[in-house]
Amino acid sequence: MKAAYIKATGSSKNIIIGDLPEPEIENNDVLVKVTAVSVNHVDTFVRAGSYKTALNFPFVIGRDAVGEVVKVGANVDRFAVGNQVWTNSMGYDGRQGTTSRYVAVPAERLFHIPAGVDPIKLVASVHSSATAAILINHVFQAKSAETILIEGAAGHVGTKLVQLAHTMGLKVVTTSSEQDFDKMDRFGSDLALDYRKSLSKQLEKNDVAGVDYVVDTSGKVALQENINALNERGTVGLITAPEDNKFTFNVRKFYTTDKAIRGFVLSHATVDQFTDAAKLLNQRMVDGFLLDDDIIEKSVDDAAWAHKALEKNEVRQRLVLKF
Questions:
Q1: Are 256 and 304 contained in the same domain?
Q2: Nearest 10 degrees: Cα torsion 126, 130, 133, 134
Q3: Confidence class for position 278, pLDDT limits 50, 70, 90
Q4: pTM of the full predicted structure?
Q5: Do 92 and 44 belong to one domain?
Q6: Edge-to-edge strand ranges of the sheet holding 230-238
Q7: 122 by DSSP, 3-state: which?
């Protein structure tokens, strides 16, 4: 079968487009004929070896895919041949990736594509959307009427955070460029702030005494500034790091106001968290949310180009490779 794979970690030049044996499935697996995969920054980290995880070589790259069920294991009863499905947690922790014509997916990591939802838009969305869903529901355990500040809200993860938080009944405060204010309003922001201006002054001007949660999707906001914006017992969620990989903050003031910092990456999400997120994402996608990404569609043959383009920040759109 056709696949994009590596024989060792390293640069994007290590990606090979070639033939590999079709995978065998176990009793709890589903064999999926892949139609498209998305390429995310984490895929480049795994390929390069900078994200340490168990890999079996030759290793098929990629973690998110959409496709059609062609065979089910003896213990699988949630799927049948012909079902349209998606997955977003392959390609790490010893599991082969998704950029191959066929992939054996554990049934617990596979989900149905809802009727009427475009598979290409879905696969472009699910990495960012699942990150947002698990962060809000499981890391923050946020409740309706609480306030969340989303910085860099016009980016891939930011737009998903805004939409999900809005539909869950949270008060949403966003920072972005002024040219994105209309987008923020459309996605559900209750208060759009200019990222170039003082956060504290803008919050004060709009009578926002504090927020319950902060997520900086850019890594460009000083941690102390975000801690200052928190209510007592509030939480900062870290999903990226500043360029120098360092933060400084007032420790005494931090712990005496019972505030918290929580780090999160999707690669450490549990199966239950992925399952809960998938249910929410499918519901919201049916309702027309989360499918707003600008997408560049390429052939699987362009896998090396896609990795290199992401690493060099040459594209802002979502990248989807098709068979």
A1: no
A2: 180
A3: very high
A4: 0.97
A5: yes
A6: 191-194, 171-176, 147-151, 211-216, 230-238, 260-263
A7: helix
